[in-house]
Amino acid sequence: MIWVVLALLAVAALAPLALTLRRGRAARGRREAALALHRAQLAELDRDLAENRIGAAEHASATLEVQRRLLAAAGTEDATPERAARLPGLLALGLVPAAAFGLYLVGGAPGVPSVPFAERKAQQRDEDALIAQLRNRLMLMDPHGDQTRQGYLLLGHAEEGRDHWDAAAAAYQQALAIRFDATLAARTAEALSRGAQRVTPEAVALFRQALAAAGKDAPWRDLAEQRIKEAEASAPQ
């Protein structure tokens, strides 16, 4: 099944290129037909002059106009031969899918089946159960102890890994309440921002606290300053 999906994706990705090449051939066909028509008109004008059906002045004027059209049609032709101009596109149509399949065979795992939905749901239930156990255990521990703080940090990391930003921010806030740390304050503020999908006033206050307490070489300083600027820019005037 995976190969069918990969083949369909390759066709969808290369369809615009194939369409362009096809349009290029159609355009060249129209140009060649126009060139043949103009050359036939020139030959007919020469016959008319030879048979005295038109005068020399009329022949010269008509020939000049047809030659102008002939030059205009010929000017649309590519400088490179048709086959050479199409060669890169044709190579891409063949080589890109082959290279993609080759890379997948080398770096992918085509023989490994995807995780069934039921198994993924079971894994999620196991994670939920472990996190619930951790929460219950933290409720029974010393609310001001260092081990409790480490437990809330672990809980925050776990929720952050599942993109549960509100739950992660709540856990980090519990750890901050036990002992302030500038890096943790910035992390809490970022979790609050991601959970709300905007930089909240509470997040701004935490970012400012973190910046004031951290050194100038804090790796998250640029992010904190950028978040504060975003909040200021979106604030009502």
Description:
By secondary structure, the protein is mostly helical. Helix content is 80%, strand content 0%. It has helices at 2-50, 56-75, 82-107, 117-139, 146-161, 165-178, 182-196, 201-213, 221-234. Helix 7 (182-196) packs antiparallel against helix 8. The two termini are 56 Å apart.
Q: What's the topology here?
A:
Layout: H1 2-50, H2 56-75, H3 82-107, H4 117-139, H5 146-161, H6 165-178, H7 182-196, H8 201-213, H9 221-234
Helix pairs in contact: 1-2, 1-3, 4-5, 5-6, 6-7, 7-8, 8-9
How many E-type strands? 0
> How large, in whole angstroms, is the Cα Rg?
36 Å
> Count of helices?
9
Looking at the overall shape, the CATH architecture of the largest domain is: Alpha Horseshoe
Task: Give a short summary of the structure.
The protein folds into two domains: 106 residues; 118 residues, Alpha Horseshoe (Serine Threonine Protein Phosphatase 5, Tetratricopeptide repeat), CATH 1.25.40.10. It is built from nine helices and no strands.
Key traits:
237 residues; mainly alpha; Serine Threonine Protein Phosphatase 5, Tetratricopeptide repeat; 2 domains; 80% helix
